[in-house]
């Protein structure tokens, strides 16, 4: 039974616990895979450029469909979309584990991305709808905590599962979690009606054309960026693909501008402060996303560490982000997002620049210190940047800004992953294969990737500097 927005008379703690299971599974999968990529590449005889699609395919569908499913929930009901997402995610996890080739794994990871895109926005929507306003912030904080814990646990779990069982178990671990989440959600999440006040939307046509245009545009953009290293950034195929991508984004813009009920209300992009905050956020997410793609290969190919050891190393920035992200959010509330993003952005820039200086025999203390600096720098920007996006939007557009902010997390990560892959490929293709390019060529590609990450972070810091300072009272 649905009791209307903010009037859930059941056990709120139980409701949050049930939703947190799905959010945890979603977050875990976003962090557990990267550390296993070297082993997946070895088992399937795949080059880094191809195996990186295991990550980017997932992110393309996740970032390309989040806004769509968030909007669709107001037509079909958040509960229906959420549970369908849990089931799709669980089934596709099993299919990923059963994959017998890299192409098959990429296809099933795409299905996982669709499931994740159904889970993330509807989980927040259910809490916003069912929990009273005076406890809503705390409830959303619990969901963030569940996701953050999964994010921190992911690299360690992925490393140990890969080393002591096999990489297949990074997907099989989702089965009991997903089954429990679906069963409990059916029983304890109330209602499945659309949001009160939005019932008129059933009489309007959903913007399927806009949704499809956005997904295709994002897919072409990320895929083109990823292949630029192998084909060459100025090759005809890359230039033509980017031109097609630009044309599709323009068609999307025209569609959303004229649609009676657009999937994305683009009028919000007329706000300069919103645009700079979103760009800052995406650049930091892109830098960190690219870093956690390349670092496992350095640890396992150059340092010859085990997957478990590599996972423990990646735990350092993950834990720092989990700790410093909420601290950055609190500091942003007091001092403004601008000052937090500038200070943390400088730290992140320094972290990437120092990480670019890795060699085949860098001292462990240096590696640990740089990984710590990456987390301490990126974490506060992630939360303060999100705060800046929301606060820069007028009251009537806060919900739109929130949806764009959530999409920016994964779109920025996808772009960063594709850019790092392309840069790395530019260097390693001269060796004939990125599977075994040789330590010297590998480190040249590694250096170039983290210089790119440095540029990402420096640009984010400069963009933050251009934003308006918060007036202290």
Task: Give the C-alpha Rg.
Answer: 21 Å
Structural class: mainly alpha
Q: First CA to last CA: what distance?
A: 45 Å
Helices and strands, in order, run as: HHHHHHHHHHHHHHHHH
CATH topology of the largest domain: Growth Hormone, Chain: A
Shape: globular
Q: Looking at this structure, what is the CATH superfamily of the largest domain?
A: MFS general substrate transporter like domains
Identify the CATH architecture of the largest domain. Answer: Up-down Bundle
User: Biggest sheet: strands, sense, closure?
Assistant: none
Helical amount among residues, as a percent range? over 70%
Which runs of at least 5 residues are low in confidence (pLDDT < 50)? 1-9, 194-200
Mean pLDDT: 83
Top-tier CATH class of the largest domain: Mainly Alpha
Number of spatially distinct domains: 3
The total of helices stands at: 17
Provide a descriptive summary of the structure in words:
This protein is an all-alpha fold. The chain folds into 3 domains: 192 residues, Growth Hormone, Chain: A (Up-down Bundle); 56 residues; 202 residues, MFS general substrate transporter like domains (Growth Hormone, Chain: A, Up-down Bundle), CATH 1.20.1250. It is built from 17 helices and no strands. α7 packs antiparallel against α13, α14 packs antiparallel against α15 and α16 runs antiparallel to α17. It is globular, with a radius of gyration of 21 Å. The N terminus is likely disordered.
């Amino acid at each position: 039974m649905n009791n209307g927005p903010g009037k859930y008379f059941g056990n709120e703690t139980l409701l949050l616990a049930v939703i947190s299971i799905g959010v945890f599974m979603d977050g875990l999968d976003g962090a557990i895979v990267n550390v296993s990529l070297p082993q997946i590449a070895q088992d399937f005889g795949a080059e880094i450029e191809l195996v990186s699609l295991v990550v980017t395919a997932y992110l393309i569908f996740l970032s390309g469909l989040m806004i769509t499913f968030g909007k669709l929930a107001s037509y079909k009901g958040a509960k229906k979309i959420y549970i369908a997402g849990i089931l799709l995610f669980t089934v596709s996890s099993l299919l990923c584990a059963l994959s017998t080739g890299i192409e098959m794994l990429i296809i099933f990871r795409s299905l996982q991305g669709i499931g994740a895109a159904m889970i993330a926005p509807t989980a927040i929507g259910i809490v916003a709808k069912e929990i009273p306003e005076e406890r809503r912030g705390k409830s959303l904080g619990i969901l963030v905590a569940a996701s953050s814990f999964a994010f921190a646990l992911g690299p360690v779990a992925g490393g140990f599962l890969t080393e002591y069982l096999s990489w297949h178990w990074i997907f099989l671990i989702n089965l009991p979690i997903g089954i429990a989440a679906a069963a409990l959600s059916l029983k304890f999440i109330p209602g499945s009606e659309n949001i009160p006040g939005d019932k008129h939307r059933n009489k309007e046509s959903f913007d399927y054309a806009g949704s499809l245009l956005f997904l295709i545009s994002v897919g072409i953009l990320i895929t083109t960026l990823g292949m630029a290293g192998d084909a060459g950034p100025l090759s005809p195929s890359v230039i033509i693909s980017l031109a097609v991508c630009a044309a599709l984004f323009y068609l999307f813009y025209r569609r959303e501008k004229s649609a009676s009920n657009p999937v994305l209300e683009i009028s919000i992009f007329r706000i300069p402060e919103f645009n700079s905050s979103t760009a800052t956020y995406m650049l930091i997410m892109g830098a960190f996303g690219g870093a956690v793609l390349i670092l496992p290969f350095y640890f396992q190919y150059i340092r010859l560490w085990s997957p478990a050891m590599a996972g423990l190393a990646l735990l350092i920035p993950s834990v720092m982000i989990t700790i410093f992200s909420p601290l950055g959010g609190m500091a942003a509330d007091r001092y403004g997002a601008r000052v937090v993003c500038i200070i943390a952005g400088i730290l992140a820039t320094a972290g990437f620049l120092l990480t670019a200086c890795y060699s085949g025999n860098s001292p462990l203390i240096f590696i640990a210190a740089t990984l710590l600096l990456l987390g301490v720098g990126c974490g506060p920007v992630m939360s303060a940047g999100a705060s800046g996006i929301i606060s820069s939007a007028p009251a009537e557009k806060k919900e739109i800004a929130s949806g764009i902010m959530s999409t920016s997390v994964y779109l920025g990560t996808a772009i960063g992953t594709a850019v790092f892959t392309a840069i790395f490929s530019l260097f390693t293709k001269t060796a004939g294969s990125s599977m075994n390019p040789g330590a010297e060529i590998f480190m040249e590609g590694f250096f170039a990737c983290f210089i790119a990450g440095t540029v990402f972070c420096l640009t984010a810091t400069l963009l933050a500097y251009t934003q308006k300072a918060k007036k202290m009272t």
